[in-house]
Amino acid sequence: MLLIDCPCCGLRPETEFRCGGQAHVARPATPADVTDKDWSEYLFVRENPRGVHAERWIHQHGCGRWFNALRDTVSDRFVETYPMGGDPKSTTTETRL
Amino acid sequence: MAQHFRLPAGGRVDRSKPVSFTFNGSKIEGYRGDTLASALLANGVHFVGRSFKYHRPRGIISHGSDEPSALLSVSRGPGRTDPNNRASVVELREGLVTTSQNHWPSLNFDVGAVNDLFSPVFVAGFYYKTFMWPRSFWDKVYEPFIRAAAGLGVAPTEPDADRYANRHAHCDVLVVGMGPTGLAAALAASETGKRVIAVDEQSEPGGSLLHASDETIDGKPAADWLKETLAQLDARENVILLPRTTVFGYYNHNHVAMTERVTDHVIDPKGAPRERLWQVRAGHVVIAAGSLERPLVFADNDRPGVLLAESVRAFVNRYGVLPGRKIVFATSGASAYQAAIDAKAAGADVTVSDLRLEAGCGPELAKARAAGVEVLTAHTVIGTVGHKRVKGLIVAPVMGSGTIGPRRTLECDCVGMSGGWTPTVHLFSQSRGKLAYDEALDAFIPGTSAQAETTVGAARGDYNLAACLASGYAAGSKAAGGSAEWRFETSATLVGFQPVRVMPTDANPAKVRAFIDFQNDVTAKDIKLAVREGFQSIEHVKRYTTTGMATDQGKTSNMNALGVVAGQLDKPLPSVGTTTFRPPYTPTTFGALVGPARDALFDPIRTTPIHDWAVEHGAKFEPVSLWRRAWYFPKPGEDMHAAVARECKAVRDGVGVFDGSTLGKIEVVGPDAAEFMNRMYVNPWLKLEPGRCRYGLMLKEDGYILDDGVVARVAPDRFHVTTTTGGAARVLNHMEDYLQTEWPDLDVFLTSITEEWAVIAVQGPKARETIEPLVSDIDLSPEAFPHMAMREGRICGAPTRLFRVSFTGELGFEINVPADYGRAVWEAIYDSGKKFGITPYGTETMHVLRAEKGYIIVGQETDGTVTPDDVGLAGMIAKAKVDFVGKRSLGRPDLVASGRKQLVGLFADDPSLVLEEGAQIVADPNQPIPMKMLGHVTSSYDSPNVGRSIALAVVADGRARMGQTLFVTTPGGFARASVVDPVFFDAKGERINA
Amino acid sequence: MRRFSYRSLISEALNAHQGWQRQWRAPDPKPSYDVVIVGGGGHGLATAYYLASQHGITNVAVIEKGWIGGGNTGRNTTIIRSNYLYDESAGIYEHALKLWEGLSQELNYNVMFSQRGVLMLAHNVHDVQSFKRHVYANRLNGIDNEWLSTEECKAFCPPINISQDIRYPVMGGALQRRAGTARHDAVAWGYARGADSRGVDIIQNCEVKGIRRDASGAAVGVETTRGYIGAKRIGVVAAGNTSVVMQMAGVRMPLESYPLQALVSEPVKPCFPCVVMSNAVHAYLSQSDKGELVIGAGTDQYVSYSQQGGLHITNHTLDAICEMFPQFTRMKMLRSWGGVVDVTPDRSPIIGKTPVENLFVNCGWGTGGFKATPGSGHVFAHTLATGEPHEINAPFTLDRFRTGRLIDEAAAAAVAH
C-alpha cells in the first residue's frame, strides 16, 4: 500500500485515494473542431511509461481534492506531488529513479 | 509413552507442567514450553509424515519455521482443525489432537509408497511427457488420480470457530527478529525515546540465545543477558515487544505486514482472537532475521532421524530433549561442532564427520576433541542405512586426489547435518532491495536498499556473536536517528564453512537419490535433468522440478538447488540468478488477512430511515449495490407475483407509497452552477426556472449514457440533483473530476446529500388527496404546482423539498424530508392514505410501472454502450449547446452508423408468456449457428394494468421494425414476439398531469 | 524433436534419464529473419509455432528479454473459458478453446488442460439478467453455457454456501462445462519445443532496445542487447511492456499497464471440483492439480511495472473468498505474486496492423489473456504470414478507438442501477 503525500493533508495511506490516470491530458477547448483521430487520442491514448509518470490522484476519503504526482512506475516511488493546475518541480527525464 | 529421550535437567521447558496430546490416536506427554516437534522427539517419535510425491517416510528436520517435512494436521476442537502445521512451530497445548498426513491407510503402511518404486519413471517433469494417451483419459482417469495423490493435508470443512483481528500501527523503528542482533538494535533504538516495535516469530524472544550453552555476553551467561535485556526493553514505554509474530510481507513505502499468533497456545481463548494481522508503517526497518542452516545433499538424506545440526543443538539445549542416543554430525563447517559438544555433554554418543581437511578446520576441532568427541575430517557422506528411521550413516574418506576411499557405516539413531548457512534475505528482497553475491560467505546478502531499511547480523552473513550484537546496536541507534555504538564482550563463536553442493560419492550420481527439496521430493539428479533439458534459468528449474515451491518455499533448499544448477552449467553461481522472494515469508492464515471483514463487515449494508417500517410490514428485500431495498410487500399467503400484481393495480387505481431514499442526491451550488450543469448534462439548464424540474441525462466522455435522474433548480445558484441508486458515487466523482481538473474557474460546490434526505414517493390518482392534509405552505393545486415542479415548504411540520414528479406515469409526488423525519412522515402519509387504500410498494412494482410507461432504467436498458438516441432520448439533447461532456463522441463514425440497437417494446405472441430478461432476439430461428443476433430483452414483466406480458428490448434498427415478428430465446427454444412501441400504458400521458 | 511417449519415458527411466535432449535450443541470433516476434510468452511462442506449423514460415525468431513464459504466462490463475457475450469476443475465445481441446496431443506436451467447468455465480437480480443474456448469446453462437439454479450450483460445486441469509446469497449461476484450467508453464514450454523443432530460434535474455525503420518509415529490424536483428515483419507480443516497445517505433498505444496479483494456498487434498467466479463479490477460485487453492485478486489502481501490488488488494480478495467459503479461513496463503497487465479502454485486445509498415501488434489482453493463448497465436500467425488479419481478429483493430466500434464486455456487464 502506497504512502501518498496529499498537498493538503500530508502523508496518508493509499486506501484514502483514487488514482485518475495520466495527468496533464487537457480536454480540447473546442471538441467540435477536433478530428476523430485526435479525439480518440485524447480519450484513449496514454503515455504508460516505464519510469517517471505524471498522474492524477484524488484524496477521496480525505480533503476530496484532486492533485498531481510524479511517480516512478518501476519502483513505485513518488518523486513529488503538486497541486492541480501546477507544474512539477522536477522534470520527468531527470528524475528517473 | 514415557519421555525416554527427555534429559533429566536443562532447557526452557517446565517439567512441573506436563501437557498431554495425541499423535495418530496415541496419547503422548510433553511439557509446557515444548513444541510438537520437541515433545514427539522426547518420546522417540521421528517418523511423522509422508512426502508429497514418493510418499517416503519423513521426520522432523528442523526446530524452526524452515521445517520442510514434519507437517501435521492439528485439531484444537470443533471448527479448530487445520492441515499442514509445522511440528516445530506448533506450541504444545493440552488436548491437541495431531495426525500425520498424505498416507493411506496409515502412516506405517501407505499404499502411496508404491510411487517410490516408480521413482525411476516419476522424475522431474515426467507428467509433461505422458498421460496424453488416449486423450479422453486425462479428465477421467489421469487427472483425478494425480489430484488424489497430491495435496498434503485435508482442508477444513466446517466453519471456523475462531475469530481474527486486524490492527494498524505506526512506529519509528521496526525491528524484525529478536535474536541477539535484533535485541541489541531494539535496545539502541529505544534509548532515544523513539517508538520501537520489535517482533519475533518464536514463542519467546531470544533467537539463537534460547539454545545457547557456554556462550557469554558481557561476562554473563547468554541466558542471563537475555533475561536482563528483555526486562530492560519491557520496562520502556516506547517499546512494544511482539513474540509469536511473523513478519510475512514487506510492501511499498515501508508498509510491513505481520501476523501475531494470539491464542493457539492457550486452552481457553476467552473470546480473544486466534491471530492478529498487524499492518505497520515504519519509519525505518531493521531486519535482524538471522540465517538458515543448509542441509547436506547425499543419498537418502531424507530418512527420519536426520536433522539439521543446529536443530539437534536446539532440541538438546532449549527443550532438554536428546533426538538420539548415538548421533553422527555430518558437516562441512564449524557450527555443527558446538552442537556435537553440547550433545556429548548431554550424554549422547557423538561422532563428527567433516568434509573439510583437518587443515581447513578452525578452533572447533580442538574444542570438540577436548570434549571427547570423535572427529573424522576429510570424510564425505555416501548415504544412510534405515528406512523409517536412520540406523547408520555411510561415510568415506575423500583422498587428496579427490577419489573416495573405503566406505564405513557409522551406526547411529540420529544424524545432525550442516552444509553451512544462508542469510535470511527474504524480507530484504521483498522490499525490492538488490541482493549481492558474497563469494566468501557462499551466499546472497543484502546489497543496495530500496527503502528505509537496514539488514544486520546473520541476515547479512555475520555469524559472530560479538559482531552481531555490535552491528545490531549501531543499526538500531542509526535507525532512530542516533549514532551510539556499544562494544559487546562475548565468548568466541565457531564460524566458517566450506560450501558444498552435493556430497562427493563413489556411487553413480545419475542414480543417487540425494534430496534437495525434501517436501516436494526433488533430488539433485532431478535438477540436473532439468538443466540438461534446457531449463537453465533458476525460475525455469523451479517450475519444472518444483524445487522451492513447497510450503517451506525452499528455505532449506534454495541455495543447494542454485548450486547444483550452477555446477551443471559450469557457471558462477550468481549468473544463474536467485529467485525473487515474495510474500509471505511463511504460510499465512487466510483468516488473519480477512480479520473481522465478514458478512456486513465484508461489505456494509446500507438501509434507509424507512427500512425498519418495511421490515415490520413484512417486506422482502433485494440487494441493490450496497443497499437493501424493499422488493415487495407480500400479504399472508401471497407469493411475489401476486403481491406485485396487487401493488401495481393499487398505484394506478388509488395511491401507493414507495421508499425512494436510496436515490443518489447531490447539491450543486454556486454562481456558476447552471453553467456547470450545462456542461455536465446533455440537457439545457440555463433557462430552467427556480422551482422547476427537468429530467437530466448524463454521458461519459465517450458518448455513452452514464446516469440519469430528475434535477430541480432550487434557486438560481442551487440545483438538487438526483442520480440512480447505484450511480450516486460515480456521478459525484465524475462531476468533481471535471469541476476540479477541467473547469477550476467555475465557482461551484458539490455536496453529496444522499444521506440527508429521506425520499417518499406517493403515486397514484389519490396522491394529492393523501398528502394534502399534511402539507403546509405549498399550494398543491395542478395550476400552482404542475408536473415537474418543485416547492419548498413543510410537511407534518418538517421542512420538505416537495417534487411533483413521477416514475410511474401517475400523478405523483416525491417528498424529500430530512432523514431523521423520514419514518414519521412516512407513517403520517400511510395513515392519511388509508382511506384511499394506500399501498406500500417495492422496487419490483416500481420496475413494472415504469416499464408500462417505457421509462428506461440506466443499467438495465443501458449497459455502458448505449447512446441517448439508442434509447429514444435524443430529444433531450440541447441542440444549441456547443459542447457538453460526451457530445463530441456522439459524432464518432460508429455512433452515428445505422444498425445500432434501439429501444422498442415487445409483445410475445402468447400474452401470458413473460420473456426472460437477457433473452436474445433473432429474425430467423432456423438459421444455422452462429446466429445473427439482433438484440436482447432488457426488461420483462407480467403487467396487470396492460393485462398481459410486456417487454422492453434493444433491437438493431428497432424503430424501423415496428410490427415485425421476431423470435426470442426461451429455455426450450424460441418464442414469437412482435415489435411494438415501448409505451404500453397511457400513451398520451394524461394521467401524469392530473 | 524426440517425441514423448510411454515407450520413450520407460526407455529413459532404464537409462537414468541421461538421453533426454534440450526441449529447445539456445541459438545465437541470426542477422535477419522473415519474422521476429518480440516477447517469449505464451502468445508469442504460440504465434511462432503456428507460423511454422500452419504457414511453413520457419525462419522466425522469438526474442525474450528474460526467460520464456516468465511474464503473465507464468503468473496467471490459468482459467480458460469462452462464454463471452459479444460475437467478436466469443469468436476468438471459442477459437482458442477448440485449440485447447487438442493441444496436448498437437504439441506432444501435456499442458494438463482440465475441463472441470467454470461456474459464475449470480448474487443479485442484475447478475441474473446479465448471465442469462450471456447464456442465450452463447447458445446462438454455438458455445456451451448453461444457467443453473441455486440448488444446481450447490450440486455441481458442493463447497458453495447457498444459505439465503448471507451477505451475497447465491441466486444461480452460469456454467460452461467445457471451460477449465491448464498448466500455464507447460503451455509456454510446449509451444517453445514445438516451434524450436520446426526451426524457430528462441532467444532468451535478449532485450529489444529499439525498432529500426527505413526511409519510408517501414520497420526493418530490432536493436537488441545481442545486436541488431533484421526482420521482414515484426510482431510485438510484449503484454505489459507493449507501450514501451511500441514507443520505440514511435507508436503511442491506448494501453495502461497495471499490477495484477494472485495467490495460492498450501496444497491440500481435493476439496474444490471446478472454477468458481463471482463478479459481485470480486473473487475467483480453483484448486490446482497439486492441491493449492488458486485465487485471483484484482488490479491495483495505478500504472506500474513493478510486478508487485499492495496487501490491501490481496486482503480484499481473501475477504471475498472467505465470505463465499467460510470454511477456508484456516487455510494458509503460501505464495503471492504480481504481473503487469496491459489494459485497453474497452478491455478487449488489439491484434493486427499498426500505423508502421511491417510492424504488427498483439496486446491488450488485460487480466484474461491466458485463456486465449492458442487462438491468439493462431490468428496472429495468420496476420504476420499474410499481412492481413484473420477474420477472427479483424474486429480487434487499433482503429476501433477512432470509430467508436468498441468491444466492451465489461460495460455490457454494467453494475446495477
From TrEMBL, chain A:
Superkingdom per UniProt: Bacteria
Gene3D superfamilies, per the entry: Folate-binding superfamily
InterPro entries: SoxD, SoxD_sf
Pfam families reported for this sequence: SoxD
Protein name: Sarcosine oxidase subunit delta
From TrEMBL, chain B:
Keyword annotations from UniProtKB, A to Z: Oxidoreductase
Domain Aminomethyltransferase C-terminal, first and last residues per copy: 901-986
Record SUPFAM superfamilies: Aminomethyltransferase beta-barrel domain (SSF101790), FAD/NAD(P)-binding domain (SSF51905), Folate-binding domain (SSF103025)
Family: Belongs to the GcvT family.
InterPro entries (UniProt xref): 2Fe-2S-bd_N (IPR042204), BFD-like_2Fe2S-bd_dom_sf (IPR041854), FAD/NAD-bd_sf (IPR036188), FAD/NAD-binding_dom (IPR023753), GcvT/YgfZ/DmdA (IPR028896), GcvT/YgfZ_C (IPR029043), GcvT_C (IPR013977), GCVT_N (IPR006222)
Positions of the FAD/NAD(P)-binding domain: 172-434
Residue ranges constituting the SoxA A3 domain according to the UniProt record: 512-593
Span of domain GCVT N-terminal: 610-881
Organism whose genome encodes this protein: Chelatococcus sambhunathii
Protein known as: Sarcosine oxidase subunit alpha
Keyword Transport: no
Top-level taxon of the source organism: Bacteria
Automatic annotation (TrEMBL), chain C:
Enzymatic reactions: sarcosine + O2 + H2O = formaldehyde + glycine + H2O2; sarcosine + (6S)-5,6,7,8-tetrahydrofolate + O2 = (6R)-5,10-methylene-5,6,7,8-tetrahydrofolate + glycine + H2O2
Coiled-coil blocks: none
Keyword Oxidoreductase: yes
Record domain Rhodanese: where: 35-79
Superkingdom as given in the UniProt entry: Bacteria
Keywords linked to the UniProt accession: Cytoplasm, FAD, Flavoprotein, FMN, Nucleotide-binding, Oxidoreductase
Endpoints of the signal sequence: none
Subcellular location: Cytoplasm
PANTHER family the record matches: FAD-DEPENDENT OXIDOREDUCTASE DOMAIN-CONTAINING PROTEIN 1, SARCOSINE DEHYDROGENASE-RELATED
Family the entry assigns: Belongs to the SoxB family.
Name by which UniProt lists this protein: Sarcosine oxidase subunit beta
Naturally occurring in which organism (per UniProt): Chelatococcus sambhunathii
Taxonomy of the source species: Bacteria, Pseudomonadati, Pseudomonadota, Alphaproteobacteria, Hyphomicrobiales
